[in-house]
Amino acid sequence: MNAAVPDSLVTGYEDLIDSLQLSDPDDRHVLAVAIRADADAIITFNQRDFDEAELAKYDVYTEHPDEFVSNMIALYTPRVISVVREMRGRLRNPPKSVDEFLNTLHQQGLPQAVGRLTAFADSL
């Protein structure tokens, strides 16, 4: 991750963990990192464990990965299509056809994103 996204490692968040109140205490570190990184959103399939009122104290919200990816496709279509094509191209064991790749994304909980990507299937 550090090689692909320089400066992606967040440090110095540990002192915040104990002061945060979430329904699942094991998720407090995620909010602490978001606060320390001055993030706008936490992208998670597990939105129910992140109380909106607690997150609002820090100007943070949750967003489902399907919504996030769909928005990225809409906002940055050429770049996202290029990245998705590259991702699929890296699959070697086994390689996946476009349909297989999109089916995998759908099974992983990204139906809206797959709907948007389907329009670009010839480019993937």
Short recap of the structure:
It is built from six helices and two strands.
Structure notes:
Helices cover 46% and strands 5% of the residues. With 124 residues, the chain is mostly helical. The chain has 2 domains: 14-63, no CATH class; 66-123, no CATH class. It has a two-stranded parallel ribbon. Helix 3 (65-75) packs across helix 4 (77-90), helix 3 (65-75) packs parallel to helix 6 (111-118) and helix 5 (98-107) packs antiparallel against helix 6. The longest helix has 14 residues, at 77-90. The mean pLDDT is 94.
Give the helices and strands, then pairings.
Elements: H1 28-36, E1 41-43, H2 52-56, E2 61-63, H3 65-75, H4 77-90, H5 98-107, H6 111-118
Parallel strand pairs: 1-2
Describe this protein with a few key phrases.
124 residues, mainly alpha, 2 domains, two-stranded parallel sheet, 2 strands, 46% helix
Biggest beta sheet summary: 2 strands, parallel
Q: Using the CA coordinates, give the radius of gyration.
A: 17 Å
Unreliable stretches = none
Work out the helicity level.
40-55%
CA distance, first residue to last residue: 24 Å
Multimerization status = single chain
* Run of helices and strands: HEHEHHHH
* Total count of helical runs of at least 4 residues: 6
User: Overall 3D geometry?
Assistant: elongated
Find the structural class using helix and strand composition.
mainly alpha
As a percent range, the share of strand residues is: under 5%
Q: Would you report the number of β strands? A: 2
Biggest sheet, strands in spatial order? 1-2
Mean pLDDT: 94
Q: Tell me the domain tally.
A: 2
